């Protein structure tokens, strides 16, 4: 029997787009009503197995006393493969990247241990009792903050994504690389950040009205620095000291980092030790060369801060496998540096037709939004895509549109670890064959 919603309406199992996409209202919001609609063991392909008459047998783990609870909990040994992908697994003296395995996790909050991390000069072993943050330059009164003094301020907590400008850069390849969602898109993660609004600290220092920029500097051996508009600092920037309720992970900026929501990841300076108020940008190495946006024809943008609206499907995706025809819930994440996600459309036929996905609430500003789309796979070929819109009206570009504006490589890129360009936000397509195998395709 199909359950009704609060207004007495039954969830629709009607197709809303080609190749088996179903009405998102079938998801109801409190859970999925499709299981009851399909019926266990029916031809529609329910995932559950019929209950046998035999009594439930006691498993070995139910017959003995378990392990003693440890002071710091770690994942089950059966989840040993849910780890980040490393660009420098041998620990060589060079940059290192750790990518979030999006295809193996769910929800919108990335676990601290799986949050992506990029370190250009290794992870410093900072003593929090000795670390200091200095605000100086064009201010009335230079100030110095320890972790302890920052912790005395009223703290605010907000969920936000952080994305490297080089995330998904392998998709600038003129041929699709065969890699997982985590390898392709793993340089973006979403956390609940807690810290002190930067505006509070700047007001206390008395910033000069003529100061339009801040130079943020980290405490790593490279003293990584970036120019931050003062306007952005007063909008929603934080000096973050907690991540998902615990102190920052060392690779994510311990003991304090700058958070500039919606701006490219390298601007969220880790190991933050200095903020200098100035009247013009510093044009540092990381903003004038390493993270500059190269356009067709060889021109570059002077600055490209905003991480634009984007989405990608995490399930089903490359590396996973569809066991048999039937019902599946297509799921993924959408986000935008310009605000909240307004809607996500999903296609199962390579963009020929689209249906609107359900957005899991609440939808936060500059944060991951999980989308879900009910789908009945008939066992034939399919190409899954998602396309997001944000509240400002920005839309995720189709690949042809994106390549025309930003370009692509002339030769295939063999690995997503290559960084031929920055700020890729076009559509990801997963092709599924009759065996349930999934490949990365361009469509």
Task: Tell the overall outline.
Answer: globular
Characterize the largest beta sheet: strand count, sense, and whether it forms a barrel: 5 strands, mixed
With strands numbered from the N-terminus, the spatial order across the biggest sheet is 7-6-15-10-11
Parts with pLDDT < 50 across at least 5 consecutive residues: 1-10, 39-44
The averaged pLDDT comes out at 90
Instruction: Report the helical percentage.
Output: under 10%
Describe this structure in words.
The protein is 10% helix and 28% strand. The protein has 7 helices and 26 strands. It has a 5-stranded mixed β-sheet with strand order 7-6-15-10-11. Strands 8, 9, 12, 13 and 14 form a 5-stranded antiparallel β-sheet that branches. A 5-stranded antiparallel β-sheet has the order 21-20-24-25-26, with no helix packed on it. Strand 1 (15-17) and strand 2 (21-22) form a beta hairpin. The longest helix has 8 residues, at 198-205.
What is this structure's SSE topology?
Elements lengths: L14 E3 L3 E2 L11 H5 L46 E2 L9 E4 L17 E3 L13 E5 L5 E3 L1 H5 L4 E8 L17 H5 L2 E10 H8 L7 E6 L6 E5 H6 L2 E6 L2 E2 L9 E3 L12 E7 L6 H6 L2 E2 L5 E2 L8 E6 L10 E10 L5 E7 L7 E2 L1 E2 L9 E9 L4 E9 L8 H8 L22 E4 L5 E4 L2
Parallel strand pairs: 6-15
Antiparallel strand pairs: 1-2, 3-4, 4-5, 6-7, 8-9, 9-12, 10-11, 10-15, 12-13, 12-14, 16-17, 18-19, 19-23, 20-21, 20-24, 22-23, 24-25, 25-26
Short description:
This protein has 443 residues and is mainly beta.
């Amino acid at each position: 029997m199909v359950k009704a919603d609060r207004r007495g309406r039954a969830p629709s199992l009607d197709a809303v787009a080609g190749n088996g996409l179903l009405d998102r209202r079938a998801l109801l919001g409190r859970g999925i009503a499709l299981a009851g609609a399909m019926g266990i063991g029916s031809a529609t392909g329910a995932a559950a197995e019929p209950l046998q008459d035999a009594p439930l047998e006691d498993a070995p783990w139910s017959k003995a006393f378990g392990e003693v609870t440890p002071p710091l909990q770690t994942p089950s040994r059966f989840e040993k493969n849910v780890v980040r992908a490393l660009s420098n697994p041998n620990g060589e003296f060079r940059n290192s990247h750790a990518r979030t395995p999006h295809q193996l996790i769910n929800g919108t909050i990335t676990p601290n241990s799986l949050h992506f991390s990029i370190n250009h000069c290794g992870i410093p072993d900072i003593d929090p009792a000795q670390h200091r943050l200095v605000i100086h330059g064009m201010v009335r009164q230079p100030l110095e903050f320890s972790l302890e003094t920052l912790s005395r301020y009223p703290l605010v907590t907000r969920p936000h994504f952080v994305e490297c400008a080089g995330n998904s850069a392998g998709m600038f390849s003129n041929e699709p690389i065969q890699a997982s969602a985590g390898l392709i898109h793993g340089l973006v993660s979403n956390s609940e950040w807690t810290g002190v609004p930067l505006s509070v600290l700047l007001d206390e220092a008395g910033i000069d009205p003529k100061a339009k920029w801040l130079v943020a500097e980290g405490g790593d051996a490279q003293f990584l620095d970036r120019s931050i508009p003062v306007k952005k600092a007063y909008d929603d920037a934080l000096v973050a000291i907690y991540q998902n309720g615990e102190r920052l992970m060392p690779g994510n900026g311990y003991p304090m980092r700058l958070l500039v929501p919606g701006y490219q990841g390298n601007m969220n300076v880790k190991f933050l030790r200095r903020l200098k108020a100035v009247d013009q940008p510093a044009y540092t190495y990381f903003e004038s060369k390493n993270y500059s946006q190269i356009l067709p024809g060889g021109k570059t943008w002077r600055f490209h801060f905003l991480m634009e609206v984007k989405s990608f499907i995490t399930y089903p995706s490359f590396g996973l496998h569809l066991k048999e025809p039937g019902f599946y819930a297509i799921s993924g994440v959408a986000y935008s540096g310009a605000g909240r996600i307004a809607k996500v459309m999903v296609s199962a036929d390579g963009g020929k037709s689209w249906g609107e996905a359900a957005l899991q609430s609440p939808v936060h500003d500059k944060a991951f939004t999980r989308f879900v789309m009910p789908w009945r796979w008939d066992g034939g070929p399919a190409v899954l895509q998602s396309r997001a819109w944000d509240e400002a009206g920005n839309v995720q570009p189709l690949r042809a549109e994106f390549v025309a504006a930003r370009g692509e490589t002339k030769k295939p890129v063999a690995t997503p670890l290559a960084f031929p360009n920055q700020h890729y936000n076009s559509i990801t397509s997963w092709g599924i064959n009759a065996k349930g195998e999934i490949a990365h395709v361009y469509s």
